[in-house]
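User: Hey, my collaborator sent me this sequence without any context and asked if I could get a structure. I don't really work with proteins. Can you help?
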Amino acid sequence: MRYFIQTYGCQMNEADSEAMARLLEGAGYEAAAGAEEASVIILNTCCVREKPEQKVYSRLGELRPLKERCPEALIIVAGCLAQKEGTALFQRAPHVDMVVGTRQFHHLEKFLHSCHAGKRICALGLEDDPSVGRQGEWKANLKAFVPIILGCNNHCTYCIVPSVRGREKSRPAQEIKREVEALAAGGCKEITLLGQNVLAYGRDLPGGGDLAALLEMLNEVEGIQRIRFTTAHPRDVNERLLEAVADLPRVCEHFHLPIQAGHDRLLRAMGRGYSAAYYLAMTEKIRVKMPEAAITTDIMVGFPGETEAEFAASLELYRRIGFDQAFTFAFSPRPGTPAAAMEKQVPQSLRQARLARLIELTKDCALSINSTWVGREEEVLVEGVSEKDSSRLAGRLRNNKLVVFPGTRDLVGRFASVRLTRAHPWGFTGELRRC
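Assistant: No problem. I've predicted the 3D structure and written it out in structure-token form, which is a compact way to encode the shape of the chain:
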């Protein structure tokens, strides 16, 4: 009665894995340190690009000898790849016992009983309520992800998310508030509101609603010190949202706004619904209203038909906007999407060459912005020991920039005042001033 969950992909997958863990623990299971020690092994998967998909298949290959040694151990593939492939996963990996889609994991206990009885399960329905599986007691963690809307109604031509996550479904605001209050009572100090398109929150609810109103409500929850939200579609940014972020003291000044490309023809071919000029004007408006806000993005290179001139236009727009950080990637054709069938596919070698140039630009831009903060004393929420240097602590500023500094472990979970002494593309090193 021990479980092990390995998570691939985005923050929504992390939140789903946490919910699965709670369901299993409620059924009497205990967490295992690794797959070798577990009777239930769950791979919570991603398929937004080819690389994470291949990582899952590689991991399934590694688990096959374990299944041969311990046939009673159950191997489960959950999440986006499960939703995409369905029963085909059984053919490719016959040692898999269960395939469970993105909105079916709340039935996990029932499915496990069936598997133990010798049945194979494939559950892929996308119509279930997004609130199911998020009830009960929450662990006392410093930070927490809180899904507020599932699915996506947009139709970006390269994206597989709508087909594996379903249409948008918002959770009722009062229910979200109760979850956040429970998290705060357990010691949580920072929450991140999640959605494939978080700015679409409330449109489908009776009587409507929006993210700004939800932020106003959650800003009043005692104990929560920082509120974040991601991911936001640039097309849906409006004045009401900007006013809420600027005015609400617990809402952090950080906007993650995937731009994807910086040339209008590419943006139209991608189905993004905005122009380069619109995106530039929107980011300028954010910086006028909140000069110290961080603006981060996702940007793709090598979309079908991308010319050298169009790629250069994307680089130039990136420079003009001055992003604080970017998640960069080369176009990865996803089966069933319009972009996968488009003509003039960019050769893989050229995609990778352009990606390398983009990455260098993102590093230079981030370092330039961060250098202007050196010497300042800033509030850091100390999250734990640095992953790369166990002698130092790591935490984040309100705008989500990482800070690493010397300190004692008793500071973890507290706010500390840190002087920023050196800038890096990834953030800062600093020295503790007071806590």
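In plain terms: The domain at 2-123 is CATH 3.40.50.12160 (Rossmann fold). You can pass these tokens on to your collaborator as they are.
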